[in-house]
Amino acid sequence: MKTYTALSVVLLLCGCTSVSPIQKEARERYTVTSKTSNPLVSWRHLMNASVGHATEFCAEQDKAMHEIDVGTFGVRGFSPREADLRFECVPRWQSQ
Predict the structure, then answer these.
(1) Domain total for the chain?
(2) Which residues contact 30 (CB under 8 A, 6 or more apart)?
(3) Would you place residue 80 in the very low, low, confident or very high pLDDT band (cuts 50, 70, 90)?
(4) Longest alpha-carbon distance in the chain
(5) Per-residue CA distances from 51 to 7, 8, 11, 33, 58 (Å)
(6) Which 3 state secondary structure label does DSSP give 27?
(7) Residue numbers of the domain that contains 71
(8) pLDDT (tens digit, 9 = 90+) per residue, 19-32?
(9) Could you tell me the superkingdom of the organism this chain comes from (predicted)?
């Protein structure tokens, strides 16, 4: 029963977060946005969704993700919230 309850809570928190496709902004600069209307989703989870998607995108190119700018919009509660991430993919040696 505890496992079922824990699984339900995880699905509730993660199930209502969407991540946009990666949008090319300029030469080697990109944007990704994660959104939620779920009042139980934390800002950290919302931001991690964007960062994770960007990191995977850059890893597919054998590069590392370098964060340029982060913005959060909305008010915690029942209003929609979003986290916008601007980033670039840089050679792995440059990110260290």
Answers:
(1) 1
(2) 22, 23, 24, 54, 57, 86, 87, 88, 89
(3) confident
(4) 52
(5) 24, 24, 20, 9, 11
(6) coil
(7) 2-95
(8) 999 999 988 899 99
(9) Bacteria
